[in-house]
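[job 4471] stage=fold_predict status=RUNNING
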Amino acid sequence: MTRLLLNDQLYKDFILKAVPETKRFLWIATADIKNMHFEQGKRFVPFLKTLSDLVEQGREVRLLHAKEPGPRFRMDFDSYPSLVKSDRFERILCPRVHFKSIIIDGVRAYTGSANFTGAGMGAKNQNRRNFEAGVDTSDPLIVRGLMDFFDDVFLGRHCTECSYLKECPDPANRIHQD
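[job 4471] inference complete, writing structure tokens
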């Protein structure tokens, strides 16, 4: 299955339905990261709650992003102890990341234009959200290709030749050398 997701289809079909059904692992890559919210009943809650719930259920979560999140994200992040303390949650900041992908259990993936923000993937009003396009796929070749690409960046396989290494706030190869 491969299908095009436009605008709020990403939010409705992938963020609200597919991501919470993660069984083993969830990998998220984004250039920009903000305090994204989603609908839960009649309330809107930080998407970090979903990530925290997955970690507490024993799922592995990786988050790869290009710039430091804003203060609202950090405040919400700090209110979820499982994200702060668990070995099941890993976060890497790489200023060269510009791809946007979500990989679920190695069998399904989204890749496209949307950043991990309310206007990109979250519960924004249709007249305030970004115009986004992406692909939701379970094609094994595409999913494996995205996983390999994500893993190379996350594990720092590009760090030694990177021109930004001296300015990099969080070199992945230093973190993953153990």
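[job 4471] summary: Strands lie at 2-6, 25-30, 37-40, 43-46, 60-65, 89-93, 100-104, 108-112, 133-137.
[job 4471] exit 0
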